[in-house]
Amino acid sequence: MSSSNKVLTSLDAELGWIRDTYTDLHRHPELSLEEERTAGIVEEKLKSFGYDVQRIGGTGVVGVLVNGEGKTVLSRADTDALPVTEATHLDYASEVPGVMHACGHDVHVSALLGAAKLLADGRDAWSGTYIALFQPAEEVGAGSQAMLDDDLVTKVPRPDVALAQHVMPMAAGLVATTAGPVLSAGDSLKITVFGKGAHGSMPHMAVDPVVLSAAIVLRLQTVVSRETKPGDFAVVTVGALNVGTKSNIIPDRATLLLNIRIYDDEVRSTVLAAIERIVKGECLTAGSPQEPVFEYYDQFPLTDNDAGTTDHVTAAFHDHFGADAVQPATRQTASEDFSRIPDAFGVPYTYWLLGGADPATYDAAVKNGTVARDIPANHSPFFAPVMDPTLSVGVQAHVVAALSYLGRDG
Q1: What is the average per-residue pLDDT within 77-104?
Q2: How many CB atoms lie within 10 A of CB 98?
Q3: Rounded to the nearest 10 degrees, how much is the dihedral formed by the CA atoms of 241, 242, 247, 250?
Q4: In contact, 253 and 175? CB cutoff 8 Å
Q5: Separation CA 17–CA 6 (nearest Å)
Q6: Among candidate residues 106, 122, 103, 141, the one with its CA nearest the CA of residue 28
Q7: Which annotated residues bind Mn(2+) (predicted)?
Q8: Which residue, 17, 189, 264, 291, has most beta carbons within 10 Å?
Q9: Which of 134, 77, 161 is nearest to 345 (CA)?
Q10: pLDDT at 364
Q11: Are 252 and 196 in contact, with CB atoms under 8 Å apart?
């Protein structure tokens, strides 16, 4: 019997508390950097499993289990929820007004806790060190950096490899892997441009930031269509334009909120440089009395899976789940901050996708061509992964991936 099968023998007996943990977390979601209750639950369980537990980065929790000589594996789950009002009508729906686990981080926490328990109970099947890391504030791109700023790299053993997963709107029971970029890098950007205010009847006395910002929005549409090489991925979205208060007042400034997504750091540099050049140029053309102000926030690094690590874990998934349950992952345009952690340690990583949608519903939607309509996506108020088999497969994936490095038969 393989080391994974030995460790997973008791999974069915553990699923009860894993489901209870999931529903409890779902009922009590917490926003980024406010995950005190969640952190407390994680701490209590890891300590009861026999892990050496630390709080790192405020609401981050890390458990370390040393089990003899061997490699060191770090597995990560994110813990925060979103400012979304739940509309699922589940009997375990959020009890916190305006806050919901709409991205599945409650699945991630529960699955990693389950894996941590099984690995602690099955220490005779593996050797090395296992690190279970529960990271806050992924949704605002701040949690991994908060843990690093709190000296994560000196407080835990240096891993040989880092692992993470994310539940997605694909059929439960499936896992999906890919080498190279799997999640985009992302930047949010607030741009303030300045005009000269005046009465609406006296436009000749003004520098109109309404016209200026409209020109900027139109010109920004050329960044992808005319300045990005065909075949290179880039998204530039103007998500908000705020200017003016009254019809007969020409205001003195405007703010634009932009979101950028890319898969390549060179493309990112090109896109951001083009945005700043266009904004400055339009301000100069309009006679703006002041240089524009650029403020970057909610910045997410590229999630770029190491090829060797991904091939290694994918092979282990094939052996355990069977080839039909392991799919090539489609690159996602969403972003994550997980990669800062392995990058800080200088170690390879892989990040795979976990199916969470009801398989029958998903298959019917695929057949009818209605996936986008019938399967709620992450961040939707209707997002609700099915507990079974999502939690079981999530636990198994963490165990199998870790034991592909730590198992005595590995």
Answers
A1: 98
A2: 12
A3: -100
A4: no
A5: 20
A6: 106
A7: 103, 105, 139, 166, 379
A8: 189
A9: 161
A10: 95
A11: yes
**pLDDT tens for residues 2-21?**
999 999 999 999 999 999 99
- Partners of residue 234 on adjacent β-strands: 262
- In tens, the pLDDT along 206-223 reads 999 999 999 999 999 999
Sign of CA dihedral 99, 104, 110, 116: negative
Contact in structure between 339 and 301 (CB atoms under 8 Å): yes
Binding positions for Mn(2+): 103, 105, 139, 166, 379
SS3 136: coil
DSSP at 330: P
Q: Which residues contact 398 (CB under 8 A, 6 or more apart)?
A: 75, 111, 112, 114, 115, 163, 165
Whether 410 shows a pLDDT value over 90: the answer reads no
Residues forming a β-bridge with 280: none
Would you tell me the crossing angle of helices 36-49 and 105-121 to the nearest 10 degrees? Answer: 10
Strand, helix or coil at 4?
A: helix
Q: Residue 356: enclosing H or E segment and its boundaries?
A: strand 349-357
Q: Could you report the per-residue pLDDT of 246-286, keeping only the tens digit for each?
A: 999 999 999 999 999 999 989 999 999 999 999 999 999 99
**Average model confidence (pLDDT) for the chain?**
97
pLDDT of residue 47: 98
Q: Which amino acid is at 352?
A: W
Any idea which residue has 């009847």 for tokens? Answer: 201
Annotated binding site: 103, 105, 139, 166, 379
Q: Computed over its alpha carbons, how large is the radius of gyration of the chain? A: 24
Taking the mean position of all CA atoms in its chain, how far away is CA 379? Answer: 11
Q: CB neighbours of 340 closer than 8 A, spacing ≥ 6? A: 144, 145, 148, 301
Between helix 387-406 and helix 11-27 the angle, nearest 10°, is 120
